[in-house]
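Q: What does the assembled structure look like for these inputs?
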Amino acid sequence: MEKVIFKVFRFNPERDKKPRFDKYEVPIRNGMTVLDALYYIQGYLDGSLAFRSSCREGVCGSCGMHINGKYRLACETQINRLKSKKITIKPLGHLPVIKDLVVDMTDFWEKYSYIKPYLIAGAPPEENERIQTQDDRNKLDGLIDCILCACCYAACTITDTEKNYLGPAALLKVDRFVEDSRDNNKKERLLTVSGDSGIFRCHTLFNCQEVCPKNLDPTGAIARLKRMAISNTLCFWEK
Amino acid sequence: MKKNIISVLLRELKLNFNPGMISFFFHRITGIGIVIYIFLHLWTLSAVVKGRDAFNHSIVKWDNTLGHFFEYLIMIAVLYHLLNGIRIIAADLFKLTLFHKKMFWAFGIIFIVFAVYSIKVFF
Ligand code: FES
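A:
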């Protein structure tokens, strides 16, 4: 059976002075994912390895990590496709490590809840439900598929240099509600993200777009918000 | 821990080696370079307050191969910063975020053409 070397980031802040990389040799089979390999390591080679996962099928967003040069979902990354005999795994960046590949996502979630990630319609629906035309619904394509894996947050250099920067995932969500015909809080949402730590802090690096495992375009969503905020400031505001 | 901008940029470039990050890296480096140049430039020109001869003397100091080499470096830094700036503004304001890689390569070609042609002009 073919074997691949896994170089895995290890760090326990309670015990270790500094992080290290441990090497493991994992026998691989066709179709095996990086997450499968991590389970193999945990089950057969080193039970102390910590990592997050849940759905194992790219839905829950728990298994984001840095794998061979790029932030990806471990469960969606097939080892064969990496075309390498050596795979290096690091935790998500710009978030404090709790243990090994598990990071403290408090900052990420606080910023996410700050932008009010829910529909604010302002009034009860006229009928039993809030009807949306097909065209209006189509505008949300590419915005509602975010699984909050934080790969974009970790890849964005600005989340490191400016601790208060809301980050691509939260800003993509703002755009998702600004674009939603049923939401009635557009102006306030734009004001919330137009400050120092919002959309204009984005330096258009495209790292978020590059790493998004769902092929979304957070850079494009932030750019759209920038355009709206600019035209709003120039008094071309449309309801 | 205090962060040094260059080491942060290098670390991030290593973690995210893609056209977007590479272009940002050089945008920052050329930006810092241009700011440093502006001060050197003003310092050189400030000799004008000491009279004509002092000014000529100050300018002539750079009229040699090394001076031309520095001028060439400044020219390509400004050219890069300008082209990448246009690329970013175009992506942000004209809904071109999905075409940023194509723009990166297209502007890269323009950059190389100008940079190579300028060798003839500067030396
Ligand atoms: S385990 Fe759910 S996205 Fe990977």
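Chain B touches chain A at residues 3, 5, 8-9, 12, 15-21, 24, 88, 91-93, 95, 97-98, 100 (CB under 8 Å).
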